[in-house]
Amino acid sequence: MIDLRSDTVTKPSPEMREAMAHADVGDDVYGEDPTVNRLEQMAAELLGKDAGLFVPSGVMGNQLSIRLHTRPGDEVIVESSSHIIRYEGGSASSLSGVQLTCISGMRGILAAEDVKAVIRQPDIHTPPTTLLCLEQTHNCGGGTVYPLSTIHELTDVARSNGLALHLDGARLFNAVAATGISAADYASPFDTVSFCLSKALGAPVGSLIVSDDTRIAKLRRLRKIFGGGMRQAGILAAAGIYALEHHVARLTEDHQHAKRLSHLLSKIHGVQCSPDDVETNMVLFQVDGKLGTTDELLSHCREAGVLLNSVGDRSFRVVTHLDVSAEDIESAGRMFAKAFSST
Ligand code: TLP
């Protein structure tokens, strides 16, 4: 089975497991796990911030950051198909008591004038707008890269209105691989940046938040409150260090695979797919209604030997990753052709 549902499905390689098995560990709640400390320092250096905090998941990275930057009743601006609004179980409202204001972007990418238009001016009737969250790369946009110039336009508007800035950089390193712009340059305008080790980078667990020393100290306390304080987490951090050392440079391979797959998909009758839209490791496509319902199409693909996720009515997402080879991509192309002709 070729699994293209997400880049979260990768399994740790024997070398990564070896690194995990030999990790030096201690109790991280006491700050005594040398491997976690090394990973946090590495992340901070890579992203050009003072300090880092290892957290169990991308959702926790986002939610701790939202809690840090807001008070209950505040308003947070997000893109309307962002992970924070779509896939985090409503946690921003339940855990931080904030209200989310959504603006639609072009394939997930917001425009500064649209953000400016929804920032509320102080008034007793309105919630204070206190935070802008962006997503790099943009998942539902199709792995879209936020251009650095657009980030600067958006963050300038937000800053001049007193908003804090958080970047959900779950796939930040895919943007780095696609553009050659450094992670530190992308991170620079933000107060907090989270990124995931367990997506394209192939680690089994974990994300990091980076920021200045004061904010990281507060986030460390919040992590404990949210139940994310881990003990001998060096075993997991070792996988993260291995991922940062060995799996960043190869991301361009995943991008080439996604591009190739988009070309194969675009040639299938009844499939709408634009290879020009493929910027990183994701491909979005739609399938003609005559070929079946969403569920039927998913099961035809499974029967043909390929797994993928639906992201809407007859709309699908495939994600390339570490455990998918160039040959797998060619096979997946044939499997999709079979699945979408079998009705
Ligand atoms: N994304 C997953 C699903 O939750 C949709 C996926 O398969 O793409 N931010 C972004 C942009 C993400 O794509 C994800 C995971 C997260 C945060 C959350 O990370 P985890 O799953 O580690 O909590």
Description:
The protein is of the alpha/beta class and 343 residues long. The protein is built from 15 helices and 13 strands. The chain has helices at residues 14-21, 34-47, 58-69, 83-86, 91-96, 112-118, 139-142, 148-160, 172-179, 183-187, 213-225, 234-246, 251-266, 294-304, 326-339, and strands at 2-3, 51-55, 75-79, 99-103, 129-135, 164-168, 192-196, 207-211, 271-272, 282-287, 306-307, 309-312, 315-319. A hairpin with a 2-residue loop joins strand 12 and strand 13 (315-319). Helix 1 (14-21) crosses helix 12, helix 2 (34-47) packs parallel to helix 12 and helix 13 runs parallel beside helix 15 (326-339). 49% of the residues are buried. The structure holds ligand TLP. Residues 6, 8, 57-59, 83, 87, 135, 139, 168, 170, 196, 198, 207 line the site of ligand TLP.
List strands and helices in order, with pairings.
Elements (H helix, E strand, L loop, with lengths): L1 E2 L10 H8 L12 H14 L3 E5 L2 H12 L5 E5 L3 H4 L4 H6 L2 E5 L8 H7 L10 E7 L3 H4 L5 H13 L3 E5 L3 H8 L3 H5 L4 E5 L10 E5 L1 H13 L8 H13 L4 H16 L4 E2 L9 E6 L6 H11 L1 E2 L1 E4 L2 E5 L6 H14 L4
Parallel strand pairs: 1-11, 3-4, 3-5, 5-6, 6-7
Antiparallel strand pairs: 2-8, 7-8, 9-10, 10-13, 12-13
Helix pairs in contact: 1-12, 2-12, 3-11, 6-8, 13-15, 14-15
Bound molecules: ligand TLP.
Ligand TLP binds next to helix 3.
